[in-house]
Design a protein that fits this description.
Layout lengths: L3 E3 L2 H5 L7 E6 L5 H14 L4 E6 L19 H11 L3 E3 L3 H4 L19 H4 L3 H16 L3 E5 L3 H13 L5 E5 L19 H31 L6 H8 L3 H14 L3 H16 L6 E10 L4 E2 L6 E11 L2 E11 L7
Parallel strand pairs: 1-4, 2-3, 2-5, 3-4, 5-6
Antiparallel strand pairs: 7-8, 7-9, 9-10
Helix pairs in contact: 2-3, 6-7, 8-10, 8-11
């Protein structure tokens, strides 16, 4: 299989389409996380479909002082990885091809959700992201587009844009790919020195600590719900030593702080410790949010949530997140 390298929309539009077209949008510097996206796209498109990978470093989403100029550009290596992962074509347009006549005067607005978390730290970032994603969707005309869940807020905004503006495309989120030590794969990881990389592991460790605290609390509450409701049943269980275990579980579940507050506290403890090492981690935010609008969830929340973190280590800014599910934590009947 030979992957075609295309640089203009006319070249892309001239391709004969058979079956479904699946598009993976990237800024290049491809790694195994991108390869996973491409392989997933290949599965979705099928043997008769087409997988297109876009490679474009979008200037609209970089703010003043950010790393636009030093963002890695490795097109030859990107083309090789895309080919190995199963892409039919790599669409790598120039800035002039995407924005003829200069930066666009008309842009999409990410709205209130785009002003939270990443948007608060990087004003205008998501307006630039949505503008280029909209343009690339129009240029590539896919049936389905795939994005990584590591950029959870971006994924949520793209889904909202597609729904609100009636884009005729399916959006698929693909789980975050991690290195063996837990660090989420990112093109910016290459900026980290060995010492900085060790500090950066605190991001994933904090998320896992929050996840584990939540899982432990849920297990305790589930055990507490098994406490027998009748005296006769309690006496029967006592004979085999289970009533004490159930009572202990009930006591711990009742006394220990649980829910979102406990998740945040467990994660923050790890991050606070990382802020005291050398080189230190400098936290931008830790948030536990509703993925529908990226607002913080309260203690009574039930449903899907995202635990998200962003921090700087040295001059490199990294983000990460994990999904969590909060069930009905009411008292046992």
């Amino acid at each position: 299989m030979t992957t075609a390298l295309l640089s203009t929309a006319d070249e892309l539009h001239a391709r004969v389409r058979r079956g479904r077209r699946a598009v993976v949008m990237t800024m290049g510097a491809l790694h195994e996380g991108h390869a996973t996206l491409i392989r997933t796209a290949r599965e979705i498109a099928g043997r008769d479909g087409e997988v297109v990978v876009t490679v474009f470093v979008n200037p609209l989403q970089f703010g003043a002082g950010e790393d636009l100029d030093r963002y890695p550009r490795t097109l030859d290596a990107d083309l090789k990885l895309a080919e190995q992962a199963g892409a039919d074509a790599v669409f790598a347009p120039s800035v002039d091809e995407v924005y003829p006549g200069g930066q666009p005067q008309v842009r999409l607005s990410a709205g209130p959700m785009g002003e939270r978390l990443e948007g608060a730290t990087r004003p205008g970032h998501f307006d630039g992201v949505l503008t280029v994603v909209a343009k690339l969707l129009h240029l590539s005309r896919p049936d389905v587009a795939l994005f990584g869940q590591k950029d959870a807020q971006q994924l949520a905004l793209i889904r909202r844009m597609v729904r609100d503006l009636n884009f005729g495309v399916e959006i698929v989120g693909v789980p975050t790919v991690r290195e063996a030590d837990g660090l989420a794969l990112s093109s910016r990881n290459r900026y980290l020195s060995p010492d900085e990389r060790r500090t950066a592991l605190a991001l994933s460790r904090a998320l896992f600590a929050g996840r584990d605290r939540h899982a432990a609390q849920e297990a305790l509450r589930a055990r507490a719900r098994e406490v027998p409701s009748t005296h006769a049943r309690a006496e029967a269980l006592s004979a085999i030593g289970e009533s004490r275990a159930a009572a202990d579980a009930h006591a711990v579940a009742t006394a220990a702080p649980g829910g979102p507050a406990a998740v945040r506290a467990a994660a923050r403890q790890v991050l606070d410790e990382a802020g005291r090492v050398e080189p230190p981690l400098k936290l931008d935010y830790l948030a536990l949010v509703d993925p529908s609008d990226f607002t913080e969830i309260g203690d009574g929340f039930t449903g899907e949530a995202v635990l998200a973190v962003a921090a700087r280590v040295g001059t490199t800014r990294l983000i990460d997140n994990i999904p969590l599910t909060f069930g009905n934590l009411g008292a046992a009947s």
